[in-house]
């Protein structure tokens, strides 16, 4: 698992980017978040996730966002 934070999030389209501890950014879709709904995702929240190959490159999967 990778530790990071929500770097930005577009609630209208349910996607954003996570930034890891080394400042690497990775795309994510709200459907990959396993413990929150899109309306509850906030910039700056801590997250743990995995990275997998998606249709357009790497993306975060199995995302858990801390309360």
Order of helices and strands: EEEEE
Count of separate DSSP helical elements:
0
Number of strands: 5
CATH superfamily: Nucleic acid-binding proteins
| Cα separation of the termini | 18 Å
Largest sheet: 5 strands, antiparallel
The CATH topology label is OB fold (Dihydrolipoamide Acetyltransferase, E2P)
State the strand order across the main sheet: 3-2-1-4-5
As for the number of domains, it is 1
Broad CATH class? Mainly Beta
Q: Rg to the nearest angstrom?
A: 10 Å
Subcellular location: Cytoplasm
Keywords: Cytoplasm
Domain CSD: 1-65
Protein name: Cold shock domain-containing protein
Q: Please, could you describe this protein's structure?
A:
It is found in: Cytoplasm. Its main location: cytoplasm. It holds the Pfam family CSD. The chain is mainly beta. It has a single domain (2-65), classed as OB fold (Dihydrolipoamide Acetyltransferase, E2P), CATH 2.40.50.140. It is built from no helices and five strands. It has a five-stranded antiparallel sheet, with no helix packed on it.
Fold topology:
Elements: E1 2-10, E2 15-20, E3 25-29, E4 46-54, E5 57-65
Short description:
The chain is mainly beta and 67 residues long. Helix content is 0%, strand content 57%. It contains no helices and 5 strands.
What characteristics describe this protein?
67 residues, mainly beta, OB fold (Dihydrolipoamide Acetyltransferase, E2P), five-stranded antiparallel beta sheet, globular, Cold shock domain-containing protein, cytoplasm, Cold_shock_CspA
């Amino acid at each position: 698992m990778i530790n990071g934070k929500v770097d930005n999030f577009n609630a209208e389209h349910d996607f954003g980017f996570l930034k890891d501890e080394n400042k690497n950014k990775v795309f994510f879709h709200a459907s990959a978040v396993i413990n929150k709904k899109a309306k509850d995702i906030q910039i700056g929240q801590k997250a743990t996730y995995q990275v997998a190959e998606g249709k357009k490159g790497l993306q975060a999967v199995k995302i858990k966002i801390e309360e």
